[in-house]
Amino acid sequence: MPVRRRAHADGPRRAPRARAPVLWLLALEESDVGSLADRVAASRTAVSQPLAKLRLAGLVEARREGRHMYYRLTDGHLRRLVTEALSHADHRVTGEAPHD
């Protein structure tokens, strides 16, 4: 039974770590799974799963071009929100003074 609790407890902590870099990269530009996986040094599966959840939540949309699917954030408002949130987190970690 402790193994079950531990496995369940690890899941929610790992998911946000996988999604944050993907959101950040998609805030910068549209990208496909292979490029995202290369840029975050993860497997395609490790990137595809968070992308599927982000699509389900309506935060990411996809378009097909030949055999490739390209992903992007759904709108500029979300892009600014992601950029500001991650910039704020960076300021907290680095100790840089907040600004308005």
Compute the separation of the termini in Å.
49 Å
Q: What is the CATH architecture assignment?
A: Orthogonal Bundle
The biggest sheet amounts to: 3 strands, antiparallel
How would you write the strand order of the largest sheet? Answer: 1-3-2
CATH structural class = Mainly Alpha
The radius of gyration is 15 Å
Q: What is the SS-derived class? A: alpha+beta
Give the helix proportion (percent range).
Answer: 55-70%
Shape: globular
The third-level CATH topology is Arc Repressor Mutant, subunit A
Overall residue-averaged pLDDT value: 83
- Taking pLDDT < 50 over at least 5 consecutive residues as the criterion, the unreliable ranges are 1-16
> CATH H level: which superfamily?
Winged helix-like DNA-binding domain superfamily/Winged helix DNA-binding domain
Q: What is the domain total for the residues?
A: 1
How many β-strand runs?
A: 3
Task: Sketch the topology as an H/E string, one letter per element.
Answer: HEHHEEH
Indicate the proportion of strand residues: 5-15%
Description:
- Helix content is 66%, strand content 14%.
- With 100 residues, the protein is of the alpha+beta class.
- The protein has one domain (2-94): Orthogonal Bundle (Arc Repressor Mutant, subunit A), CATH 1.10.10.10.
- Strands 1-3-2 form a three-stranded antiparallel beta sheet.
List keywords for this structure.
single chain; 100 residues; alpha+beta; Arc Repressor Mutant, subunit A; three-stranded antiparallel sheet; 4 helices
Question: Would you summarize the structure shown here?
Answer:
This protein is of the alpha+beta class and 100 residues long.
